[in-house]
Amino acid sequence: MDDSATDPVKSITDLARIAGVSVSTISRALTGKGALNKHTREKIKALADAHGFRLNVAAQNLRLGRTGAIAVLLPLGHARGQHLSDPFFMAMLGFLADALTDRGYDLLLSRVLPEGDGWLDAFIRAGRTDGIIIIGQSDQSAVLDRTAATYRPMAIWGEHAPDNVHVTVGSDNVAGGALAARHLVERGRRKLAFFGNVGVPEFAARYQGFVAALPEEVRGDVDLVHSQITAEASLESASAYFAAGHRPDGIFAASDVVAMSIMSAAAEQGIGVPGDLSVIGFDDIPIARLSHPPLTTIRQDIEAGARQLVDLLFRRMGGEEAGPVQIAPTLVIRESS
Question: What residue spans in the chain does CATH classification 3.40.50.2300 cover?
């Protein structure tokens, strides 16, 4: 590299000429995105500093017809009180950020409270990102289908259905529900309940798989308790359920957060877990093993799911006819059951 400070540097092309490398190599070095030898990256940065050159990333992206960012949207049509601090969201967002960084992209995060059916189309028209990842269908499946019919660079974490137009990555929720049912039956539990909002496609599939896998004599007597996903709302639902005198001996919760809230409510009522009541969650978020008692749960591989989402999105951005992906769940047995 010729690092002479006498040559004028007004553009990335000038710097590439002085350095004796390609423009794309300069871009990768100065943005920190993409594969590049560490020594080369450091020498180019030093050369840019010596010439007082700063890359105008916005102008570069404009020339390339890209933004350099991917949107991650969380539509909360069914649970408007849910926050980004939810442990499942936090885990998923961390893995998505890692996967997008590996691809040389930034993550633009937005928590959406849908008002009407035009929120997604309006976001796309704003042109802020090169593609969209959506975490959860909520009650917005019709909106996702309508947009997916004409907008390709979009991938959704959620429940696959044969008639979906939008393309999903997600766990096999029916199979996960069946795992929970069989485990409770093996534990000798017969008076069962499901806690969750079955208006959400993923939770409805978990409930469907749970009930279908139960013995016929148990299947018709499962309590379905409507519970929102937040810790506060699910604790309130569980407390009211137990206070009304209900005493199941086995509960399958739509998420780990709901399951841990159920255990808190049970403790307040003097119901022992797992002595009187077996509790199973869904997700296997990091704090599940730290609950009291440690939570038995249906594990969905969140890290693999995040990487599959990013891979699916980039394949669709590249024009491929990439289809849905389902990930097999596993039962993690701990002390709550």
Answer: 69-170+302-328, 173-299
Residue range(s) of every CATH 1.10.260.40 domain in the chain: 12-64
Strand partners, 107: 70
For 178-220, the pLDDT digits (tens) are 999 999 999 999 999 999 999 889 999 999 999 999 999 999 8
Class of the CATH domain delimited by 69-170+302-328: alpha beta
First to last CA, the chain: 65
Rounded to 10 deg, the angle between the 12-19 and 38-50 helix axes is 120
Read off the pTM. 0.79
CA nearest to 312, candidates 326, 299, 328: 326
Q: Can you identify the CATH homologous superfamily of domain 173-299? A: Response regulator (3.40.50.2300)
d(CA 205, CA 208) in angstroms, rounded, equals 5
Q: pLDDT digit string (tens) for 74-104?
A: 987 656 556 677 888 899 999 999 999 888 8
88, two tokens: 């499942």
318-334 residues labelled b (16+ CB within 10 A) or e (exposed) = eeeebebbbbebebbeb
